[in-house]
From TrEMBL:
PROSITE patterns in alphabetical order: ABC_TRANSPORTER_1, ABC_TRANSPORTER_2
Record carries keyword rRNA-binding: no
GO molecular-function terms, A-Z: ATP binding
The ABC transporter domain, residue ranges: 7-231
Gene3D superfamilies from the UniProt entry: P-loop containing nucleotide triphosphate hydrolases
SMART domains from the UniProt entry: AAA
Methyltransferase in keyword set: no
Family per record: Belongs to the ABC transporter superfamily.
Organism, as annotated: Agromyces soli
Residue intervals passing through the bilayer: none
UniProt name for this protein: ABC transporter ATP-binding protein
Keywords: ATP-binding, Nucleotide-binding, Transport
InterPro entries listed in its UniProt record: AAA+_ATPase (IPR003593), ABC_transporter-like_ATP-bd (IPR003439), ABC_transporter-like_CS (IPR017871), P-loop_NTPase (IPR027417)
């Protein structure tokens, strides 16, 4: 394996007619962690990955692997492994598919068996790809990306279409690749899909960067609030109003715009209201994500 080198995107832009698919996008993906490249459908994820891999020409900016654009890499397959809109010849076996790639890249034959083993596909390697399930195709594209034992992996929606067992498997697999020191970038339009697989996120909407950072930092985005409830909700509403606390009535009580449950408890005490519930609301990661990408829609 070549060392995990960072992916560096700087001022990247691409228009398709009137549509700014990618707009002045800059971010860095570092080795040793799994990074989720997230955004709603049409946000520009695939276009960005295609520019990164030299499949689409950027209108502006640069996308490099440790400073070198993909097209200038000396040994591309041994540096970057990619799985993007995988298309397979349905009549070919999984092993034949890998053989074509290995031969084209001048990679030793042993790599074929090694990657089949790695993705748990040895048993199915002799079957035609046309009969593969979506999960098996996902594993075969992953095997293809791994052929050159690259230090960088760029995978477009690798979790999409996997069953729960497959999702559990790929989580562990990606984490191991990162733990080995590789740079791992995976795209998804659902934060919940990759939440347990990624350490860091790059979030885009409408071609623009919304946020980069750790998952934990994203969670902090939502101001904590307090959940409170009472057997006498009208009295509680009055007490909150009297204390000048803004709230919304939810199914499980009132959601108060106040991070300190103590302040809410005090307001209830002053109003002589009995409480049946009082706790700090944990921010939902998906809420934070939707709030972020929603802002991008404006
Ligand atoms: N070849 C193309 N010609 C014209 N418009 C395009 C082309 N490729 C992408 N677009 C447009 O650019 C925008 C970004 O598309 P892109 O496929 O990169 O988004 P995405 O985030 O990958 O979405 P998805 O998750 O749905 O694949 C969209 O508005 C799309 O319609």
């Amino acid at each position: 394996m070549t060392g995990g080198i960072p992916i560096e995107v700087s001022g990247l832009g691409k228009r398709f007619g009137q549509v700014a698919a990618v707009d002045d996008l800059s971010f860095t993906v570092r080795p040793g962690v799994v990074t989720g490249f997230l955004g709603p459908n049409g946000a520009g994820k695939t276009t960005t990955l295609r520019m990164l891999l030299g499949l689409v020409r950027a209108d502006s900016g640069t996308a490099t692997f440790g400073g070198t654009p993909y097209a200038k890499l000396e040994r591309p397959l041994e540096t970057v492994g990619a799985a993007l809109d995988a298309s397979f010849h349905p009549g070919r076996t999984g092993r034949d598919h890998l053989r074509v790639y290995a031969t084209a890249a001048g990679l030793p034959r042993q790599r074929i068996d090694a990657v089949l083993e790695q993705v748990g596909m040895s048993e199915y390697a002799g079957r035609r790809v046309g009969g593969y399930s979506l999960g098996m195709r996902q594993r075969l594209s992953l095997a293809t990306a791994l052929l050159g034992d690259p230090g960088v992996l760029v995978l477009d929606e690798p979790i999409n279409g996997l069953d729960p067992e497959g999702i559990r498997w790929i989580r562990g697999f990606l984490q191991q690749l990162a733990a080995d020191g590789r740079t791992v970038l995976i795209s998804s339009h659902l934060l919940s899909e990759v939440q347990q697989s990624v350490d860091e996120v790059v979030i885009i909407a409408r071609g623009k960067l919304m946020r980069t950072g750790t998952l934990a930092s994203l969670e902090l985005d939502r101001a904590p609030r307090t959940i409170v409830d009472s057997p006498d909700r009208p009295a509680l509403a009055a007490a909150l109003g009297a204390a000048g606390l803004a709230y919304a009535e939810g199914r499980n009580g009132f959601i108060v715009d106040e991070p300190e449950p103590g302040r809410v408890g005090h307001a209830a005490f002053v109003g002589g209201v009995e409480l049946s519930e009082l706790h700090r609301m944990k921010s939902e990661l998906e809420d934070a994500f939707l709030a972020l990408v929603g802002e991008g829609e404006g």
